[in-house]
Amino acid sequence: MWIGTQDGVVVKVLSLNKEFKVPFPEGLRVSNISSDKHGNIWISGQNKLFVCRLIDKEKGVFELSDNLLEKTSEVQVINDFTLYKENQILLGTNKGLLQLTFKDFKKFENIKISKTTRFTNIEEIVTCTKQIGNTLWIGTRKGIYKTSINDNKLYILRNFNKDSYLVKNNYNNLYIKYIYEDIVGNIWFGTQKSGLFKYMPNLEKIDVFENKIGDKGGLSSKIVNTLYEDDYGVLWIGTGQGGLNKLNVLQKNFYSYQNHPFKKQSLSGNLTTAILEDNNGYLWVSTYNNTLCRSTTKINEATVSNIKFQDLRGRFPIGKNDIIRSIYQDSKFT
Questions:
Q1: Taking Cα atoms as reference points, which of 108, 130, 104, 116 lies closest to residue 70?
Q2: pTM score, whole prediction
Q3: Rounded to whole angstroms, how far apart are CA atoms 152 and 240?
Q4: Domain containing 314: what range?
């Protein structure tokens, strides 16, 4: 398990119950962690991009590249990235979208940028995610876009700022924080102050889930930081100050897990930053100020309605004032 923080990356080898820090030359404010089909781990932060492999799980020996963007002066801040076509990565930056084409992902020593293409028709990208096929969803501080890349050009297929329903209900210029495609192809996007949105491409319909005072079955915060769908089709929503929400997609009601000072097995904090179900079926949740929780039981149909959490603070080499920004588990079950 790879845990990205404001100061670097900690790797937890679950099978051996060991933790190691990735040996970056200096601190790295991590924005995203992902892997390609060859088992390379990609890590972004600030204006840097690294590729990494854990080659000895017993001793914590890593193979780590130099900053792959050292010679690319166009990047100031990488907010997100997504692996696109074969040997391509798209960086969502504060200056637009940057497409990196590499010679090869198979051999670690051959991972070098062969071509860089910048697209500036969408600026200040906060998040981006690739849908099945070549569709690319881009979230910004002022809205969400459905796009595609062909012949080295970024085409805007749909600008949701101009969607009639969103404009009519004053939802244009949304600050998009997170985009997620669920198992049936619906696109969910969490926002900074307008709640959660669900776009159903087959119906050309948008559902809005807002935070309403007094609504016990509603979204517990207007801020949605992260989204995750588990193996049972349950959508988990990490909020700002509202804890962790579980959505019953059919009934459209929410259940909230929050911090309760006098309940030992409650969530450690209410500002959720990352969510992951590990390959053993446990749910991991990080909250602000280095807190990391894991469900005490595996997530399944019998336990999903009554989850208790174990506070794992102090069990990882993470600084006292550090913030966990990303949790990722690779295909090798690290």
A1: 116
A2: 0.93
A3: 37
A4: 2-328
Percent of the chain residues topping a pLDDT of 70: 97
φ and ψ of 148, to 5 deg? -150, 160
Contact 99, 57 (CB under 8 A): no
CA distance 83 to 276: 19
Bridge partners (DSSP) listed for residue 180: 188
The radius of gyration computed from the CA coordinates of the chain, to the nearest angstrom, equals 20
For residue 195, being part of any structural domain is answered with: yes
H-assigned helices in 42-106:
none
Average confidence score pLDDT of the chain: 90
Residues 6+ apart with CB under 8 A from 76: 47, 93, 94, 95
- Rounded Cα distance, 289 and 164, in Å: 40
pLDDT at 130: 86
Residue 84 has φ and ψ, to the nearest 5°, of: -105, -115
Task: For Cα atoms 147, 149, 152, give the angle at the middle one, nearest 5 degrees.
Answer: 145
223-265: pLDDT as tens digits = 999 999 988 888 999 999 899 999 977 667 899 999 998 898 9
Alpha carbon separation from 140 to 176, 190, 208 (Å, rounded):
6, 11, 18
- Say which CATH number the domain at 144 has: 2.130.10.10
Bridge partners for 284 per DSSP = 276, 294
Sheet with strand 96-102: strands edge to edge: 78-83, 88-93, 96-102, 113-119
User: How many domains would you assign to the chain?
Assistant: 1
Q: Do 95 and 120 touch, CB atoms closer than 8 A?
A: yes
Distance CA 98, CA 235 (A): 30
Whether 334 is in a domain gets the answer no
* In-domain check, residue 31: yes
pLDDT of residue 71: 80
What is the C-alpha separation between 5 and 12, in angstroms, rounded?
13
Indicate if the pLDDT at residue 289 is higher than 80.
no
The Cβ of residue 136 has, within 10 Å, a number of other Cβ atoms equal to 23
Does residue 333 belong to any structural domain of this protein? no
